[in-house]
Amino acid sequence: MELDPLVLSRIQFAFVVCFHAIFPVFTIGLASFIAVLEALSFKTGNPVWQKLSKFWIQVFAVVFGMGVVSGIVMSFQFGTNWSNFAYATANFLGPVLSYEVITAFFLEAAFLGVLLFGRDKVPQGVHLFAAIMVATGTFISSFWILSANSLMQTPDGLELRNGMYHVVSWADALFTASFAYRFAHMALASFLTAALVVAGVSAWFILQKREFETNRKALSIALWMLLILAPLQVFIGDLHGLNTLKHQPMKVAAMEGNWQTSNGVPLLLFAIPDQDAQTNHFEVKVPNMASYVLTHDWNGEVPGLNEVAPEMQPPVFIVFWAFRVMVAMGLLMVLFSIWGLVLRVKGKYYQSTSFLQGLRLMSLSPFFAVLAGWVVTETGRAPWLIYGQMTHAQGVTPSLTGGMALFTLIGYIVVYALVFSAGVYYLLKVFRGGIEKANRPHEQDEVERAKRPFSAAHASLEGDN
Amino acid sequence: MEQPFDLTLIWAGIIAFGVMMYVLMDGFDLGQGILFPFAPDEHHRDVMMNSVAPVWDGNETWLVLGGAGLLAAFPLVYAVFLPALYIGVFLLLAGLIFRGVAFEFRFKAKTSKYLWNWAFAGGSTVAAFAQGAVVGAYIQGFKTENFRYVGGALDWLTPFTVITGLGLVAGYALLGATWLIMKSEGSVQQWAYKLAPRLLLMVLVVFAVISVYTPFVDPLVKERWFSGFSAIWILPLLALYCAYIVFSSLRKQQEGMPFVATMGLFLFTYLGLLASKWPYMVPPNYTLYDAASAFESQLFLLLGFLFVIPIVLTYTAWTYWVFRGKVKAGGYH
Ligand code: HDD
Ligand code: HEM
Ligand code: HEM
């Protein structure tokens, strides 16, 4: 079999970026949650909030550390595997990606240390301020990166001169047509991630009858967040989709599995899209529903994949199913938010074992939804790297061979597998230690220890303490 | 386009400064990893790791800042170096990841400690070698056509780059050893005193090889150094003088001077290298002006850098200040 550097590079990028994405999406939401806990503690003086904050800061520290390590690899991927693309877009992507890194460093230098290690050394107000700044900073970071991505989806404000894009309007280039939707959708995804992980972990502690009152409070906050955010996310997701329909109709056609432009298009609940035959097998559908969702008219016209040549279509199977996974997760979240409300009205959301067990499982759902969402967005853009302007084949590094790409692909998989299984293993230990361990006074020898994110956590790698 | 001032030159200065900061600062902590397998026992290793634990990640900041700055200010460098050094870049990143994780976990490990020792040593050595090979590849130049790299996957791997790679491994080990002299006492310090002169000798041999070899392969370098009297000869002379001070201060068992003089040795060698290649940024075809991005893009990012670099510098200075004085073994529990 011929090794195709293009295919391998795409797999490699997808692997690395998916790996990275799960960490920041969690830290962004968690940072805000911690800021809220600190604010509650500052205002009420109730020690419960501080107990919770101490625990979740440790979790934050470990996840943040892993996010940084995996992010560094990505900033080099552009040059190694997509050098034509990197070179052509450097006038825009260069400064924007640099600003993302700068934001992260600024944060780390100025506020992260205070948040992680400063609790007993600075006044409580200063500590709260640091928490708020870290939370704000994670959003500024995602502003830059999502702006970069949105430009690739809906390019604007650029002009091509001699093979290089030049920025003619920074405002247009930074705030392209899909940016606002993507930012809102992503922000909600981060909050949902934090809410569901906090809910799942608290539910688990409650089932184990540990620190009941503290964990009940955390669970209560998380459920309120879920109740507001989950339906809102479905709403924003719908707007996002409508915007995509306007700018990238073929992506939406792939999401719907719609091969022919036509009126009164059904919504497919299940299907096996077959790209070679340009049709679906085993369709299960709701008549006219897709037309209604996309055009708000039961007989509206929905664009189909037949509008472009087969080689200009995105991989339909992947986009179709990734979209369904995301939406299914979103609807499950709504379901749980309603279930939680019903139980709360009856006054026993922390007593229903099946609900608590369900929440434990649901703590994984936002990660599936986020990854599936990114796969829809990125794969649905194919064959374009910059929509309508540059294809993957034009952007890939010309000197790259299949062998090189395969070597590094395997390499990254091995490195990440080793390093991150250690990281996840450690994270699970921090969870197991729980609120109790995070609040145990510990004789830390101040002098020599690194002020690294991980050192904010006190679990040891082996054994039970 | 008309430019009110020469931003490209300013950016060249910023990048050169960033690279120098990186080499000096990450150099001594990579050096601990390189020397790790040679340490007599676990006690020495504890001291070595503790001597850089609070500062190493701040040191690595400069690499990421430099990488991001390159894409923004000199995209051609980014788009030629990374494809040309593809495998090397992977090794560098993998090495840095392993040693970074070892910092986090070695302190928390008991039975698996030896694994993290190897991760730290292996990762540091591979990363240092890869960086040295990058320097060698830069001196060699790249095969380019129409602003694209057109060479093969392993063009960068030549006897010459192997020598520069090993040279930087030795150089970082020297920085590491002299740093350890400054930060430790007792048996650890004595051990470092013994190592340093040998490392210095290795470094000098490699420098000599490079200095003799380079003018032969590169007519530009030959022209620059050997056509009549040139003021740049002061740089290698200063480098040699620094080497002499390293040597004599080691003999007198001074504590701070060996490290300072080693930094001087690196600084003047680095400036000499820049002087050889100026103004070529992607040798042999493209100068820094060919490699530069658009004026507006350089300006847009400059504002951010001017804001952040002073903060990073202040934070760095503060970390080192808090951390001043000798390090003890006192491990973590
Ligand atoms: C600045 C640009 C940028 C940003 C912010 C992202 N990506 Fe991306 N992505 C690309 C730029 C890009 C790319 C360079 O354009 C790729 C490489 C090859 C390709 O298909 O497009 C790509 C491909 C790509 C693919 C493979 C698509 C395919 O097979 O066609 C996936 C699954 C993802 N990305 C997933 C993600 C995730 C999970 C992200 C969130 C963290 C993400 N991307 C952010
Ligand atoms: C191709 C895409 C991306 C690249 C090249 C990239 C690059 C980076 C880099 C280099 C870092 C480490 C900075 C440091 O050393 O402190 C980082 C961290 C971070 N990234 Fe990304 N990133 C990408 C995608 C994303 C996305 C999609 C988001 C969120 C929406 C995001 C949010 C963050 C945040 C918040 C951090 C701080 C560390 C953390 O919270 O884990 N990044 N990224
Ligand atoms: C039923 C509800 C949902 C709908 C209708 C929906 C809709 C969409 C659409 C249409 C896109 C692709 C936009 C484009 O590529 O142009 C998208 C992307 C995405 N979705 Fe959803 N979504 C829903 C639920 C969720 C949930 C619950 C999460 C995570 C918690 C999530 C996370 C994402 C992410 C991370 C992306 C990629 C980034 C972006 O383009 O915004 N989505 N969503």
UniProtKB/TrEMBL annotation, chain A:
GO terms for biological process: aerobic electron transport chain. GO terms for cellular component: cytochrome complex; plasma membrane. Its main location: membrane. The chain crosses the membrane at residues 12-34, 55-76, 96-118, 125-146, 183-206, 218-236, 318-343, 355-376, 404-428. One of its GO terms (molecular function) is heme binding. Residues 442-465 are annotated as: Disordered. Belongs to the cytochrome ubiquinol oxidase subunit 1 family. This is Cytochrome ubiquinol oxidase subunit I. It comes from Rheinheimera tangshanensis.
From TrEMBL, chain B:
Pfam families: Cyt_bd_oxida_II. The chain crosses the membrane at residues 7-25, 76-102, 114-139, 159-181, 193-213, 225-247, 259-280, 300-323. It comes from the Bacteria. It is a multi-pass membrane protein. GO terms for molecular function: electron transfer activity; oxidoreductase activity, acting on diphenols and related substances as donors, oxygen as acceptor. It is found in: Cell membrane. The keyword Membrane applies. Belongs to the cytochrome ubiquinol oxidase subunit 2 family. This is Cytochrome d ubiquinol oxidase subunit II.
